[in-house]
Amino acid sequence: MAVRAAKYEVSKFEKNKSIKLPIFKTPRKLSRTDPATRQLCEFRMEHPKPIGVLTTSSGKLVEIRESIALNSDVFSNQYHIDVLTHADAERIPERVVHAKGTAAFGYFEVTNDVSQYTKADLFNGVGKKTPIVVRFSTFAQNLGGSDLAREVKGMSVKFYTNEGNFDLLALSFPVFFHRDPNDFPHFFHALKRNPKTNLFDFTSRWDFILKKPETLHGILWLLSDYGIPNGYRKMDAFPVHTFEINNKKGDRYFVKFNFRTEQGVENLPSDVAEALSARDPDFYTRDLYNAIENKNYPTWKLEMDVMTLEKIKQLDYNPFEVTRLWKKGTYYTVPIGRLVLDRNPDNFFRVAEQSAFNPGNLVPGIPGPLDTLYKSRRFSYRDTQDYRLGVNHNRITVNTPLHWKVYNRDGKPPVRDNMKDAPNYYPNSFNGPVPYVDPARPKERLKVFDVNAVDLDQAAYFYNYYLRDDEKARLINNTVPTLVPISPYLQRRVIRLLTLTNPNLGRAVEDKLLDALEKPPLPSLPVLDVPKPKYENSNPYKP
């Protein structure tokens, strides 16, 4: 039917010679659109002929009549069974947090000699390049959510080193929201969807914050301009923990790693972010992809704030506390190298979705953090990857280290060579893999004790000294809409907590809230006339 109709239309045009049919040709350069939009057209230009004969997953060649299941015995059509049953099982469990994200490949280059601080191979040798994969993400959004939601963003980096994979899991804020690992499941439950309404719920969020006021410091970062960066390329990232490192002599230092964007830090005001999200909820993903395809490679400087063991003992605060910043004057900063992203994945699922990061993936010379939250995370991340991807998730291509010799066998694929015919137990007398001795490993153990005391001085410092007046005003404006829908009881408690942090902050939020409550509520289905945002490449909010 479709073919006959097409022939009829052509014959009608042929009768009228005055009508000229348009001639469609594939242009040599598709410059009118961005690289992400051009992807399929560019694939066709790279492959002017089909890339091969269609097969089933078992390799059986598919005859053209098998590509249509109509008027056939569908149960004997192996192609039909193959595509249908695979589609039934093509999804894997969504990440509990940081579900929505994207990824890119690149390299890390050492630019400064840091051998006096760490013997880690990837950080030693100026000019040395280490391949990496980076996954960017947003915290609470589901897979189909918006990149532009006001949330902490993630930047997880996997270094493929000669000593094993080294994973640095960083956030767009330099502080975390809590320090007790027991709080994490309850924290993300409060920030995720209400179990009855399946909606994000400001009541549960503020209730948790009020029950755990040490979260306020991170919440103020979230409600400030830093809560919505202008894309993943234009944000700094921080692994938040204090890491122990050591050199070849066994001397130990304590550092905080920082990724500093060379694109310049830029943030978006709420109204601009809302307008962009309405047009393109994948704004961050598209921006990163297009920048790399256009060879405008995103770069970050990796540096570390350093303390000595002697300095640690003299401090009047806990430097391992993840909800606070280090005090100025108690540390010095050392540059390490430069991170460059120069290649997009050829398949999103096999890289961004199957990538597995674990803060417990460390290398010699970086024994890692000592705080309780970190110790819990190094177990929890391994457990969640086992559930999501299977016990052999480190044998998936994107997660496979450069070298590995293990006694782990079998389990759900992929198993790769499954260690072939080597012994499967240790110790053994038959030359299976053996451990090594690290003479530089520090012999003394350092024990860190945490406290449950709540201290609002860090939240007060952030508001009083970190933010400018215009940034404070926007923080207040961003806070009020989150308080309007919650109960008066919780509103009063939030005002009290903010007043204890800074009297002016509490008073300003209270005044704005009262004004907002006097306005009539919006209709249930509002029709929004969103103006086109005036976008500037420069950052008007950068201090």
From TrEMBL:
<dbReference type="Pfam" id="PF06628">
    <property type="entry name" value="Catalase-rel"/>
</dbReference>
<dbReference type="GO" id="GO:0046872">
    <property type="term" value="F:metal ion binding"/>
</dbReference>
<dbReference type="GO" id="GO:0042542">
    <property type="term" value="P:response to hydrogen peroxide"/>
</dbReference>
<dbReference type="InterPro" id="IPR020835">
    <property type="entry name" value="Catalase_sf"/>
</dbReference>
<dbReference type="InterPro" id="IPR018028">
    <property type="entry name" value="Catalase"/>
</dbReference>
<dbReference type="InterPro" id="IPR024711">
    <property type="entry name" value="Catalase_clade1/3"/>
</dbReference>
<keyword id="KW-0560">Oxidoreductase</keyword>
<keyword id="KW-0376">Hydrogen peroxide</keyword>
<comment type="similarity">
    <text>Belongs to the catalase family.</text>
</comment>
<dbReference type="GO" id="GO:0004096">
    <property type="term" value="F:catalase activity"/>
</dbReference>
<keyword id="KW-0349">Heme</keyword>
<feature type="region of interest" description="Disordered">
    <location>
        <begin position="521"/>
        <end position="543"/>
    </location>
</feature>
<keyword id="KW-0575">Peroxidase</keyword>
<dbReference type="GO" id="GO:0005739">
    <property type="term" value="C:mitochondrion"/>
</dbReference>
<dbReference type="InterPro" id="IPR010582">
    <property type="entry name" value="Catalase_immune_responsive"/>
</dbReference>
<dbReference type="GO" id="GO:0020037">
    <property type="term" value="F:heme binding"/>
</dbReference>
<keyword id="KW-0479">Metal-binding</keyword>
<dbReference type="Pfam" id="PF00199">
    <property type="entry name" value="Catalase"/>
</dbReference>
<feature type="domain" description="Catalase core">
    <location>
        <begin position="55"/>
        <end position="434"/>
    </location>
</feature>
<dbReference type="GO" id="GO:0005777">
    <property type="term" value="C:peroxisome"/>
</dbReference>
<feature type="binding site" description="axial binding residue">
    <location>
        <position position="381"/>
    </location>
    <ligand>
        <name>heme</name>
    </ligand>
</feature>
<dbReference type="InterPro" id="IPR011614">
    <property type="entry name" value="Catalase_core"/>
</dbReference>
<dbReference type="GO" id="GO:0042744">
    <property type="term" value="P:hydrogen peroxide catabolic process"/>
</dbReference>
<protein>
    <recommendedName>
        <fullName>Catalase core domain-containing protein</fullName>
    </recommendedName>
</protein>
<keyword id="KW-0408">Iron</keyword>
